[in-house]
Write a structure and sequence with these properties.
Distance between the termini: 49 Å
Number of domains: 2
Mean pLDDT: 93
Strand order of the largest sheet: 1-2-3
Order of helices and strands: EEEHHHHHHHHHHHHHHHHE
Oligomer: single chain
Number of helices: 16
Structural class: mainly alpha
Length: 392
């Protein structure tokens, strides 16, 4: 029998690295599962806060449990004055994801729980970060636009409070509800790049702030986060429905990419896209202009057909395709789309950090230590011979 060798140079695709009870993505069937529940069944039925409870505590909360969680989140929303002052010293053109990553690290300086390695401390940090992420993102957007950050509104739920802190206007129930559902749909997605980054750092027994900062850094990369920003940029570039066919032909002819189509896991439409698309339509109708929704629908149809004819295989819509226009219709700056992803995904990251450190299948978490192939043949088959400086 040939010696079995581990799969290499695949970006770990197809390699199972840990067991988890948190979520599952069934790419073939187009299913996203949060602790046994289909995400599409939760969307519009439970709040983001309920999803947070589910992800952190393994069950949907009753009324008292939800009320206590909301109270904890509200109490932790405000940023330390020192952190606000630090944000005010940053260059106004700094990337929002860089600001968020830095703020996560700085938040650790103000939390005594960071020094305690226990599940209880990690859970308290999780609540702290979930509460503060919206405040950080909204505060930075106002600071960079020469506006004073707004204090969190304790009378508003998580989603509505972020929109209020961003622009100073309390959103109506429909807008707040749509945004709440967006957060729920982005809250968790199994072992994607940022979640893996967070778990890898957590495997060293680093505290939750360090682990989450790694997740934020991973999400800032162009191959992971930012796709819905580029979807919106693409739509703005196309400009109108009548230009879709020419745009798609040019992209396929030049080997380009149509943003928002295709996914590393799903072999069918992303189930979240089917929830977001009607939101985009409704928001367009509310604005009196469904242009961006109409353009998206036509682009999806034309691109799918053209791809099938040229590539002789299917391509499918992902979550970023319609979340772009949903956020755009809400008046959210396009460079905040990825930070909003993080505002939602912090719930999943925190759950994974806790599971990695305190609730894994193994008695003790394993320190991640993959192997690699060394290909540095600098001196042929032998090691290089050291040459002193004066002889080089």
């Amino acid at each position: 029998m040939d010696e079995l060798k581990p799969i290499q140079n695949t970006g770990l695709r197809g390699v199972s690295i840990a067991s988890t009870k948190i979520s599952d993505v069934d790419g073939a069937k187009g299913k996203l599962i949060y602790r046994g529940y289909l995400a599409k069944d939760l969307a519009g039925q439970v709040s983001f806060e309920e999803a947070v409870y589910l992800l952190l505590y393994e069950k949907l909360p009753d009324a008292d449990e939800l009320g206590e969680l909301k109270k904890q989140l509200i109490s932790q929303r405000a940023l330390p004055s020192e952190l606000i002052a630090a944000l005010a010293t940053r260059p106004k053109d700094a990337l929002p994801m860089d600001i968020l990553q830095a703020a996560v690290a700085m938040a650790a300086h103000h939390d005594p729980n960071a020094k305690i390695h226990s599940r209880e401390a990690a859970s308290r940090i999780a609540i702290n970060l979930i509460a503060k992420f919206p405040t950080i993102v909204a505060a930075w957007d106002r600071i960079r636009n020469n506006k004073e950050p707004l204090e969190p509104n304790p009378d508003l739920d998580h989603a509505a409070n972020f929109l209020y802190m961003l622009n100073g206007v309390i959103p109506d129930d429909e807008i707040a509800g749509f945004f709440d559902t967006c957060l729920l749909l982005h809250a968790e997605h199994s072992f994607n790049a940022s979640t893996f980054a967070a778990r890898e750092v957590a495997s060293t027994k680093a505290h939750t702030y360090a682990s989450v900062a790694a997740g934020v850094g991973s999400l800032s990369g162009a191959l992971h986060g930012g796709a819905n920003t580029r979807v919106m940029e693409m739509l703005l570039k196309i400009g109108s429905v009548d230009k879709v066919e020419d745009y798609v032909k040019n992209i396929l002819a030049t080997g380009g990419v149509i943003m928002g189509l295709g996914h590393a896991v799903y072999q069918t439409d992303d189930p979240r896209a089917h929830i977001l698309a009607p939101m985009s339509k409704t928001l367009g109708e509310r604005a009196g202009d469904t242009k961006w929704y109409d353009l998206s629908v036509h682009l999806e149809e034309v691109a799918k057909q053209a791809f099938k004819e040229k590539k002789e295989r299917e391509i499918y819509v992902n979550v970023d395709f319609y979340s772009a226009t949903v956020y755009y219709y809400m008046g959210i700056p396009t460079d905040l789309f990825t930070p909003i992803f993080a505002i939602a995904r912090i719930a999943g990251w925190a759950a994974h950090v806790i599971e990695e450190q305190f609730a894994g299948a193994a008695p003790k978490p394993a320190l991640y230590r993959p192997e690699s192939d060394y290909v540095g043949d600098y001196c042929g088959p032998d090691e290089c011979v050291y040459v002193p400086m004066d002889e080089r």
